[in-house]
Amino acid sequence: MSISFLSTQLLSVENLNVSFKTSKGLVKANENISFEIKEGEIFGLIGETGCGKTTLGKALLRLLSNNARIEGRIVYRGKNILSLSEKEMRSLRGKEIGIMLQDSSICFNPVLSVGSQIAEIYRYHEGMKKKDAEKKASEMLELVGIDSSRKSEYPHQFSGGMLQRVMMVVALALKPRLLIADEPTKGLDPDIKLQILEIIAKLVKKENSSMLLITHDLDVSTKLTDRTAVMYAGEIVEIGKTATVISDPKHPYTFALLHSLPEKGLMNVSGQSPSLIFPPSGCRYHPRCSNQLVDCSKIHPTLLEHVDDHFARCLFSEKNSKNVKREPHLIPDTPSPGCAEVGIRHC
Fold it and tell me: Which top-level group of life is the source organism from (predicted)?
């Protein structure tokens, strides 16, 4: 998928850190996250369950719990989201930035019809009269392949795939410039998954909107995105044009994810994700990596550019690349205990 038409920066995340205080210690869900999403771009964020993807998506709209601490900058169209008042955020959510959450079944009021819940969006944000809002809700349901006669039905009367389509309507109702889609096809069978993806892509491109697609499914990201960031244990380990990342992965974790796909051999990624309270010292992936060097357990690698905006956080790739733009020096991490040493299961 070509991205030559992309130019204007829509969203910029700069050195974002998100942490939570728990009884077992400080969970560092996101560490030094930086990336940008451009106008008209579909940007993929992939990684295993528990790596911090969903936390990042919610942080962009400040939808995290009160015990979350967020540091850094999230700049949307020139405004730092972290400095906005809650009133300003309410006007931003939905209208400027829409979101599709993982479990659509818990996102709806069970005692209100889906039509009335969609119509309420237009009445609240657009000031529409009840009749006009209901008409608009019907039109939007038809747009995602749901007969408008079902608008009077309740959430429990819809299948998982159909409810996901309704969630799509809610997220795209106000034609946001950016859609955050968190695992939009999770739990759906392959045929329904493909239908949902095609509808999302069609609607996003129709409005010339942008999308952050959060998924653990590399196959989904491959088919839909312009650029992809690979996340592991709370940090980005590789980022670049999707076609380049897929054809020439620079990080061993990305390589392992690719080879877990059926067409690549269906190989499991060995080991388990580390704790986000006590991550391994040095490179966080080194305990699972077959390419680890002596320094991988001591030095935390920097995200370095290899070629054409293709970045990776890996000492092995850095050593074997002739084009990498090197930092003047790397500072060794202070060793920290692993999950097994402190008796904490992986996150």
Answer: Archaea
How much helix, strand and coil, in percent to the nearest 5, is found in the chain? 35, 25, 40
**From CA 57, how far away is CA 134, in angstroms rounded?**
30
By CB atoms closer than 10 A (0-12, 13-18, 19+), residue 163 is buried
Backbone torsions φ then ψ of 180, nearest 5 degrees: -100, 115
Is 146 within a domain? yes
CA distances from 117 to 132, 179, 205 (A): 14, 19, 25
DSSP bridge partners of 66 = none
Q: What value, to the nearest 5°, has the Cα angle with vertex 91 and ends 228 and 154?
A: 80
Residue 78 lies in a domain: no
DSSP letter assigned to residue 197 = H
Q: Is residue 311 part of a domain?
A: no
Question: Mean pLDDT across the stretch 272-280?
Answer: 93
Q: 180-214: buried (b, 16+ CB within 10 Å) or exposed (e) per residue?
A: bbbbbbbebeeebbebbbebbbebbeeeebbbbbb
Q: How far apart are CA 82 and CA 92, in angstroms?
A: 12
pLDDT, one tens digit per residue, over 40-96 is: 999 999 999 899 999 999 999 999 999 999 999 999 999 999 999 999 999 899 999
**Which helix (DSSP H) or strand (DSSP E) does residue 163 occupy?**
helix 160-172
Query: CA-CA distance, 52 to 70, in Å (whole number)?
Result: 13
* pLDDT tens profile 158-172: 988 889 889 989 999
Q: CB burial class (10 A; 0-12, 13-18, 19+) of residue 156?
A: exposed
Torsion of CA 103, 241, 174, 180, to 10 degrees: 30
Question: In the chain, how many domains are there?
Answer: 1
Burial of 296 (0-12, 13-18, 19+ CB in 10 A): buried
